[in-house]
Amino acid sequence: MSDVLLEARKITMRFGGLKAVDSLEFQIKKGQLAGLIGPNGAGKTTVFNMLTGVYQPTSGEVLLEGQSLQGLAPYEISHRGITRTFQNIRLFKNLTVLDNVLIAGHQHVKYGLFDTLLQTENFRTDEKRLQDKAIDLLKIFHLEEKAHKPANSLPYGEQRKLEIVRALATDPKIILLDEPAAGMNHSETHHLMETIAKIREEFKLTVLLIEHDMKLVMGICENIIVLDHGVKIEEGAPAQVQSSAKVIEAYLGVEEKE
Amino acid sequence: MKALKNPALALLGLCLLGVALNFSVNAYIQLILLFAGVNCLMSMSLNLVNGYTGQFSLGHAGFMAIGAYFSAYASTRWSFAPPSLLIVQYFVFTLGAGLVAAAAGFLVGLPSLRLKGDYLAIVTLGFGEIIRVALLNMDFLGGPRGLSGIPGFGSFLWSFSFASLWIVICFFTIWRVMRSSHGRGFLSVREDEIAAEAMGVNTTRMKVKAFVLSSFFAGVAGALFAHFTNFINPSSFTFLQSVNAVIMVVLGGMGSMTGSIVAAIIITVLPEALRPLQELTGVDLRMVIYSLSLILMMILRPKGLFGDMELGDVWRKYVRRSA
User: Fold this and answer.
1) pTM for this one?
2) What is the dihedral of CA A173, A151, B192, A212, to 10 degrees?
3) Interface test with B, best of A90, A94, A114, A171 (most B CBs within 10 A)
4) Across residues A128-140, what is the average pLDDT?
């Protein structure tokens, strides 16, 4: 059990009469690269929002390293080590690329208000450490030359990358990627797959990703959870999921019998 | 710009300006300049909340009133220093005024900053009015008659230097905070609250911090106002005063410190500068021109005079390039 990093125990999310997610259970092991797939409206993003505290599950609970995350605010969950990217990019658009990354490092800042006002040694060393770390992260993604440009001036693909950099700057244990390849072409997707594999190695990260691009999911995920109408219909290795009748039914429907 | 980065030099420069003004202009203009100083503090501090943190506060006059009444009451009742150390006493009372206003900011901010946009504007507007009406009904603070006989600084030079000191403190405090991780936290709240939370920024705490710091300097501004006019009553701190502060921030550019200063000076001086026109024509055209220029401004430069740039950036962008 000790190698389970993130666990969902019967999490349910109701919006009024609608059950967006129904008693979902899954475990993600340390270091694993897991995928969460399902047709449109299956409740994938709702699951992410429950894992990161944006929504409190109506019932059930989420555990990180065996500790319940119930009742924690999103920023507290981020401090515990869960970070994410967003389906529709949510960068701090008018701020520079560097500032975007620095903000994610805010939780590790040690200096206080008075250090800031008096520009103490403490302030300068800590600020330098933050900046260096942010630049190092940007270098991995070849974004360091654009560090002082506003985030919304980046092309779409780079904005997606910057979201990942920003998420990494929180020093996470697990990163949740919400459709990282959305709107990318083949070669960009391929490149992204490599990047995800690389950061996972380099940062010893656990990754959970939502994706529509089956090639990407089947190519890199070790464990896949399939969601349909808020219910888990299948879980397992890519080959197993691909051949599952239930999954095919959920995606393609079944022939009506006369 | 180097000098601006050094508070002591900036203060020295302002004091020298004070000396020059002391001999060159009459008492009427001097008083307007002091009010411009008060408004600089108001706009810079409100800019922290409305410009940098992206929260719409419409109750800045309330905090100003708290500061003004505190310092006015304290200096008429609790005077402790011998005449030679009077400036120290003023500093203590002004600091106290800021702290009381900051405490009020904390109390108001904690529950209301969970609200967003229009709702926050209405709550803060309501707060400003509550303060004013409460003051109207407090007999020990003079009720509607207000407090009179508030001691001043005696001379223009002292007043101007004292205002300069606080302006420099306010400017460098906000300037440095905005160039630290705390300031970036404020900006992240303005840009995208959900993303900020997901990146580990406690957005409620950030908003309260900005609000408290902003209230502090509004309180200081109020205290200066009280000592400059020697008389305050609740109608000095109406809704209009809050709106005036918002106008200064918007005119200067949301998120521009130097913009706030320039706008505060323009907004204070413009109505007075137009006074001769009224004498000339016999009609009060002041407000017509004042409001027309604001409308034109918003059409021609909707992001304010400087946008979110500082004076130095504007200089580099427009002046150097054309040279």
Assistant:
1) 0.91
2) -60
3) A90
4) 93
